[in-house]
Amino acid sequence: MTRVVLAPDSFKGTITAADAAAALAEGWASVDPAAEFVHRPMADGGEGTVSAFEAAVPGAVRMPVTVDGPAGHRIETSWLLLPPTEDAPAGTAVVDLGSTSGIELLTELRPWDADTAGFGQAMAAALDHGVSRLVVGIGSSASTDGGTGMLSALGARFLDAAGAPVAPGARGLGDIAAVDLSGLRPAPEVRVLTDVTNPLVGPRGAAAVFGPQKGLRTPDDIVLVDDGLRRLAALLGVDPDGAGNGAAGGTGAALVVWGGILAPGASEVAELIGLAEAIADADVVITGEGSYDGQSGDGKVPSYLAGLAAEAGTRAMVAAGRITEDADTALFAASASLTELAGSSDAALAEPARWLREAGAVLARSAAA
User: 33 to each of 270, 319, 326, 333, how far by Cα in Å?
Assistant: First the structure.
């Protein structure tokens, strides 16, 4: 009997990690009906982080909250309250940026005006509840505001030369002349889960690497925002070259200013759900994400899972919405691209569960070969 651990990340905007794992299991079982499956849906700080904790921690409760979303209007969302523990006697709040200020909440990109205010408002709601600790996931950001929206929601002020508040989002970065942190709420213990190690500025910084995904179109746009982030770093007294400070459009740097500790999201979630132990007892582990590409080796779920599997001597396989030419497929014993199976990216996006089932069958046949 084959023991298969299913630990995909979510496929952004199309299917959750839990549903992706279920579809892969169905496909594998169609080829190997005697297989035993262990479901361990994953996240790395981005979309699905709250769901991963919710599935793993008994007694976790969703706490509804209304915040200012990245599209410029109020949205209904939630944060997660984990039960009290010895080191967090009033409980732990899990808040993810993706569900409050994330790019998937936009119908069209807003590179200059989207901000992280909603993320900060959700954290403020958790603090009002009285939690002892915050665990925050900062993937899937819609903006490159340097975390100014988040810090503003927590009591900071960003002022222009005339002493007036600057515009929200990246639009206001270049106008910041002074930062007032006197009203910033005290931070509890804050653990920051991130899937990237990029610095705040420069050729690997937030604007240069991730700005185009959020709508920055020209080199001049990127330089303008990069300069604004560098100026913000100087005013906040944060290292612009620090690893992870460029996460979520610079929100990583803002959280460091607030007292947060940056941590690799995939490893933190994996430890919580007992993933290493599950893989050690398995014959195969299957992971995946929407796009397995050159960036997937930089702290994201697939590369982390491949490392755990190698340590345990377990075969690792990957299924992804698309697999690009620069992806390191050598990490895996087998791979399956939903786009190739479906014949086009549009077809794969339209029916992700169907093609994940097919991918599961393809990987099972590969294992039996």
Answer: 27, 20, 34, 21
Structure confidence by residue, pLDDT tens digits, 241-279: 999 999 999 999 999 999 999 998 889 889 888 899 999
DSSP H helical ranges for the chain:
17-31, 49-56, 98-101, 117-129, 148-153, 219-236, 247-258, 265-273, 275-280, 301-312, 338-342, 345-350, 352-368
What's the whole-model pTM score? 0.87
Please state, in angstroms and rounded to a whole number, the distance separating the CA atoms of residues 335 and 317. 6
Q: How far is CA 54 from CA 66, 120, 160, in A?
A: 20, 21, 42
Cβ neighbors of 182 (< 8 A, separation 6 or more) are none
Q: Tokens standing for 279?
A: 């893989």
- Alpha carbon distance 224, 201 (integer Å): 11
Summarised one tens digit per residue, pLDDT across range 203-239 is 999 999 999 999 999 999 999 999 999 999 999 999 9
| Polymer length of the chain | 369
* Tokens 């990069």, residue located: 226
